[in-house]
């Protein structure tokens, strides 16, 4: 059992509940034709402002120390329990971590937390395809795939990548559709 959990974030993060307007799942409310049309037609700054306003209806991220510190769009963290864990004191939000000592952590604001036993780094990941030649799939900041599936550098579609996307909503249905499309392309039934 942990005595105290510290959550250190340098940029902040959007935390969303699975339950959205009128008790519906958030992806069903957010991913409608009307919502998508309005997000695509409005200026980016206005669309981001509206999204931020809606996300902050559940709880104000600034009150919890989770307000985003830059204006870049960031994928939300879907978790129903984090705000209540912060309120109860089970999780303490800290600013960016700057240094570790043998048993303590030093944060950007100068605060030091002693007797740290376990550290979990959840800093993201890098894409890599070490089993493929760089001429097939070049990995830099993003992976250049046609419709997020087929490498553009191949003359014929003989390789498909499944799941290298971040959809709004459930990923399993998107993976299934990608797999169906890839099999149809491989069979020559579609392009």
What does this structure look like?
The chain has five helices and nine strands. The chain is of the alpha/beta class. It has two domains: 5-113, no CATH class; 128-191, no CATH class. The chain is globular. 4% of the residues are buried. The mean pLDDT is 86. Its cofactor is FAD.
Per-chain topology:
Blueprint: E1 5-8, E2 15-16, H1 26-30, H2 33-41, H3 44-58, E3 77-78, H4 82-88, E4 91-94, E5 97-100, E6 105-107, E7 112-113, E8 145-146, E9 150-151, H5 171-187
Parallel strand pairs: 1-4, 2-3
Antiparallel strand pairs: 5-6, 6-7, 8-9
Strand content: 5-15%
Give the C-alpha Rg. Answer: 21 Å
* Average pLDDT: 86
What is the helix fraction of residues, given as a range?
25-40%
List the uncertain runs: none
User: Biggest sheet: strands, sense, closure?
Assistant: 3 strands, antiparallel
Order of helices and strands: EEHHHEHEEEEEEH
**Backbone shape:** globular
What is the total domain count? 2
The strand line-up of the biggest sheet is 5-6-7
**End-to-end distance, in Å?**
55 Å
How large is the count of helical segments? 5
Pairing-aware structural class of the strands and helices?
Answer: alpha/beta
Number of strands: 9
Subcellular location: Endoplasmic reticulum membrane
Protein name: Flavin-containing monooxygenase
Keywords: FAD, Flavoprotein, Membrane, Monooxygenase, NADP, Oxidoreductase, Transmembrane, Transmembrane helix
GO molecular function: flavin adenine dinucleotide binding; hypotaurine monooxygenase activity; N,N-dimethylaniline monooxygenase activity; NADP binding; trimethylamine monooxygenase activity
């Amino acid at each position: 059992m942990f005595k105290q959990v510290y959550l250190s974030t340098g940029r902040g993060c959007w935390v969303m509940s699975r339950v959205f307007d009128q008790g519906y799942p958030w992806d069903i409310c957010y991913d409608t034709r009307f919502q998508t049309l309005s997000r695509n037609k409005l200026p980016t700054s206005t669309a981001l402002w509206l999204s931020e306003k809606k996300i902050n209806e559940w709880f104000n991220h600034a009150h919890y120390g989770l307000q985003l510190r830059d204006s870049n769009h960031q994928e939300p963290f879907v978790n129903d329990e984090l705000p209540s864990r912060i309120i109860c004191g089970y999780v303490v939000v800290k600013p960016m971590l700057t240094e570790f000592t043998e048993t303590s952590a030093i944060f950007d604001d100068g605060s030091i937390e002693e007797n740290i036993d376990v550290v979990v780094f959840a800093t993201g990941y890098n894409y890599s395809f070490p089993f493929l030649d760089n001429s097939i799939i070049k990995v830099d900041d993003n992976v250049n795939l046609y419709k997020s599936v087929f490498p553009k550098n191949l003359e014929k579609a003989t390789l498909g990548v499944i799941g290298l996307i971040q959809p709004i909503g459930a990923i399993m249905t998107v993976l299934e559709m990608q797999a169906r499309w890839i099999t149809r392309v491989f069979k020559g039934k579609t392009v």
